[in-house]
Amino acid sequence: MALDVRKKQVLDAIVDDYVSTYEPVGSKALIERHNFSVSSATLRNEMAELERLGLIEKPHTSAGRIPSDRGYREYVNSLMSYDNLTDDERSDIEERISGSVDDITDLIKTATDTLSERTGFVSLYMSPRLHKSFLKQLKMLMIEPGKALVVIVLSAGVVKDKVVRIPNFLTGEQIMHISDSVEQNLTGKPLDEITLVTVATSMKGADIPEAMMNQIVYEAYTAIKQADSLNIYLEGENKMLQLPDFGELSKARNLLDSLSNDGMVAGYVNELHPMDEPNEDSFMIRIGQEITLDGLQDCSFITTTYKIGDDISGNIGVIGPKRMEYSKVISQIDFVRKTLNNKIKRLTE
Amino acid sequence: MALDVRKKQVLDAIVDDYVSTYEPVGSKALIERHNFSVSSATLRNEMAELERLGLIEKPHTSAGRIPSDRGYREYVNSLMSYDNLTDDERSDIEERISGSVDDITDLIKTATDTLSERTGFVSLYMSPRLHKSFLKQLKMLMIEPGKALVVIVLSAGVVKDKVVRIPNFLTGEQIMHISDSVEQNLTGKPLDEITLVTVATSMKGADIPEAMMNQIVYEAYTAIKQADSLNIYLEGENKMLQLPDFGELSKARNLLDSLSNDGMVAGYVNELHPMDEPNEDSFMIRIGQEITLDGLQDCSFITTTYKIGDDISGNIGVIGPKRMEYSKVISQIDFVRKTLNNKIKRLTE
DNA sequence: TATTAGCACTCTATCAGTCCGAGTGCTAAC
DNA sequence: GTTAGCACTCGGACTGATAGAGTGCTAATA
Question: CB neighbours of A164 closer than 8 A, spacing ≥ 6?
Fold first, then answer.
C-alpha cells in the first residue's frame, strides 16, 4: 500500500481527530483543525480515494469519515509517531510498582492494575509460562494422615505448591524419603521434560511398596504440571462502560460477556505469543476484525512480554476500544513492562 | 405494621406481579391476574392505603404501583412462602459441587459460580475467617539464600503459605531449628492469640543471634497473620447487564463501579456477619436503601454462612436487583450452602 | 493536470405537536 | 364497605418539519 505523502497526512489527521472526538471527520473539520494548504474540495477527493483503498469509511452518506480497521492498521504500522512519557508519568508508574510487596505475582498484578488505571481500559496479564524453567527443589510435607503438601521451587525462585492426597498409612518419614528421592533425580530438569515416567523412575530410590507408588507418582506429577497451567487476570472491565464506544447497552453487554470468558481470552492471548517467540521486546497488536475472538471486534489487543530470569516469561497488555491513542497506550505498556522487568530482576537476584 | 388480610394479599400480589413483569401494576391488572373477589375500585382504595403506609409507590401519577423498599422488606419478613427446589435443581447443584476438585478454596469457588449461574445474578464468597482456627503445624523451608517459605497448617487442614525474606547468611539448618522451635511453642494456639510477642518468645529455644531475630519474628508473624486476611470473590458481574433493572447505562455503570471495589463490598459483607454470630444458619438480607454501600441501592444482598470444621466459617451469597424472586434465590443459596458444607465435611474428615 | 468554488443532494438529529392508553382519585349511589 | 363512573394526568409513541453537516459532481481556473 504505497500512499503518497498527502494521503498519509490525511489518514493520519483523520485517525487523530476521530480518536479524540469520536465524531466522523468531514473535509471542512479537517481543514479547520490541521493546516492543510489545500481546499476542502481537494481533501474530499483524497478522502474518496482513501475510501476506495479501504482505509476509511462512512457511517452513512452524509457523514464524515472514520478509519476502517485497515486504516488503523496502516496508521499503527507506518504513520504513528511514538510518544514519550512525561517525567510525572514515569515516576508515577515507578512508584506504584516499586511500592508493591515482595511477591512476584503481586508485583505483576500491581503492574497490570497500574496499566488499567493509566489507560482507562482493560488490562491483563498471563501467568508466567514455566515449561522452560527447571526444578530447583521439591519437598513434600505431611499435613495429616492422607494429605501432604508438595512444594516446588523453580528457577528464578518461583514457588508453587499443592495439597495432594496420599495413602493413609504413609508416615512423615516415608514421605520425606520419597520427596528426597524425587528431588535428587529431577532437580535441574526443565518442567516440560518431566513426565509421569521420569517421576516414577525418580522414586525408585525410596523403597516404598510398589502398590502405593502409583498414587503418589500421579499426585506428584499433577502437582508439578499444575504449576505450569496458564492463568489470565483481567482488570478494569467496568471502566469500558465509561467509553462512548460502548455507550450502547448491547455493545457493552457483548463486550463484558466476551471478556468474562477468561479461558477464551487466555487462549487467544496465548496464541498471539508463540512459544518460541522470535522478538520478545516487540508488541503484538490486533485491531478490530483482526481479532478472532467473538464479540471483541470493536476492540484492539496490545500485548507484550515480561521476563522472570532467562527461562520464564509471561504476557502483559491492554484491551481497549480500537479507537484508542495507540502511541500513548503502547508507550505506557512499554514503560510498565520495563519497570516490571527491572523490579523482578532486583527481586530474584 | 399490622396489615389486615386483604392488604397483605394485595401487597403480596403486587410484589409477585412486579417481580415477574417489571411493569408497575395497576388495579385492573391486579384483578385480571389474581382472583380477588372485589372490584378494581376497592383495590384502588387498598392501594392508596398501602401507599400511605409506605409499602408501595408510584413512579408517576398515571402509572401503577411498585413495591417500595419497605414493601419488599414486609414481603420478605412475613408474606413470602418458601420455595422447594425441584429434584432436577438439587441434583444439578449437587453434581456441580461434587464434581469439583479436592481443594477447599476451589470447592467454595465452584459453589459460588453455581450460585451465580443458577440465579443469573452476582454471587460472592468471603474467604474463611481463620482467627479462631488454631495452628497445627508451622514449617519454614529454605528456598535460596535470603528467602524462605513459611507453611502454615491450621485446624481442619487449611494450608497457607508465604515466601518471606530472611537474613542472607542463615543456613537451612538454622531455619529448621527456628521453625521447629516456633512450631513447638505455638501449636494449638488460636490464630488470634498469636502476637508479635508470642512469636518472639517462641523462638527463644532456637539459639539464633539476637540481631537477626527481629526480622524473622516479624516475617513469621506477618506470614501467620496474612493467612487470616479477608478476601472476597465476586462472580457474574456481567450477568447484571442482562437485567432490565440496569437497562439504563448510567445505572449499569454505577453498579459495576461499585462492585469493582472489592474492598468496600468485602467490608460491608463482613459487617453483616458479626464475629460472634448468634445464628449461623440464618440469612442476612439487606434490601435497597438498607444497604449502606454507595451505588448499590437498587440491589439486595442475601448472604449466609458456610463452615469448615467447628472453628472456621465464611460467607456465601448473592447480590441481585432488589426486584428479585426472594424465595427462589434464598432456597438456592440455602441448598448450595448445605451441599457445600457437606462436601467440606467429607473432605476434612 | 491538479485544484478549487459552487451547488444540488442526502441523511441524521432534534424538536414541537399530537394522540392514545393506562392508571388514578374522587364522588355519588348501592 | 363496596362499586360504577368520570374527569384528569402523564408518559410513550408517532409525526412532520427543519437545521446542519457532509458528500459528489461539474465547470472554471492556474
Answer: A147, A148, A149, A150, A219, A220, A222, A223
CA dihedral sign, ordered A99, A103, A104, A105: negative
Q: Quickly list DSSP for B116-144.
A: HHHHSSEEEEEPPB-TTSBEEEEEEEEEE
What is the 3 state secondary structure string of A14-57?
A: HHHHHHHHCCCECHHHHHHHCCCCCCHHHHHHHHHHHHHCCCEE
Asked if residues B335 and B85 have their Cβ atoms less than 8 Å apart, the reply is yes
Q: What is the pLDDT of residues B90-119, one digit of tens each?
A: 999 999 998 867 788 999 999 999 999 999
pTM: 0.92
Q: Which residue has the cell 515466601?
A: B163
A27 strand D contact, CB < 7 Å: yes
Nearest to A256 among B139, B241, B249 (CB): B241
Give me B186's grid cell.
505455638
Collapsing DSSP to helix, strand or coil, A122 comes out as strand
What number is the average pLDDT over the span B174-187? 89
Alpha-carbon span B19 to B10, nearest angstrom: 14
- Residues of chain A contacting residue B241, judged by C-beta atoms under 8 Å apart: 249, 252-253, 256
The C-alpha of A53 sits at a distance from chain B's nearest C-alpha, in angstroms, of 37
Q: Kindly report the bases of strand D lying within 7 A of a protein C-beta atom.
A: 2-5, 8-11, 20-26
Using CB atoms, pick whichever of A103, A257, A260 lies closest to residue B163.
Answer: A103
Beta bridge partners of A303: A284, A317
Rounded Cα distance, B27 and B32, in Å: 9
Write down the residue that cell numbers 483543525 correspond to: A33
Residues of B in contact with A165 (CB under 8 A): 102
Nearest to B291 by CA among B315, B268, B260: B268
**If you count DSSP H runs as helices and E runs as strands, how many of each does chain B have, helices first?**
12, 10
Q: Is B193 on the interface with A (CB under 8 A)?
A: no
Cα separations (Å) of A47 from A9, A25, B53?
Answer: 11, 10, 66
A28 touches chain B (CB under 8 A): no
Confidence tier at A200 by pLDDT (50, 70, 90): confident
Q: Tell me the pLDDT band of A347, cut-offs 50, 70 and 90.
A: confident
Show the cell assigned to B127: 474467604
- How many Å does it take to go from CA A65 to C1' D17? 28
H or E, element range at A90:
helix A87-98
Please spell the DSSP secondary structure of A248-280, one letter per residue.
SHHHHHHHHHHHH-HHHHHHHHHHHS-TT-S-T
Q: What are the percentages of helix, strand and coil residues in chain A, rounded to 5?
A: 50, 20, 30
* Residue closest to A11 by CA, chosen among A58, A74, A94, A103: A74
Structure-model confidence comparison of residues B7 and B158, the more confident one: B7
Question: Mind listing the pLDDT tens digit for each residue in B123-141?
Answer: 999 999 998 899 999 999 9
- Give chain A's radius of gyration (CA, Å): 26
Amino acid at A29: A
- pLDDT confidence bin for B279, thresholds 50/70/90: low
Torsion angle of alpha carbons A81, A86, A87, A89, nearest 10°?
A: -110
Judged by CB atoms closer than 8 Å, whether chains meet at A237 and B237 is answered as yes
Q: How far apart are alpha carbons A202 and A199 in whole angstroms?
A: 5
CA distance A55 to A28: 19
CA quadruple B259, A335, A231, B164: dihedral sign: negative
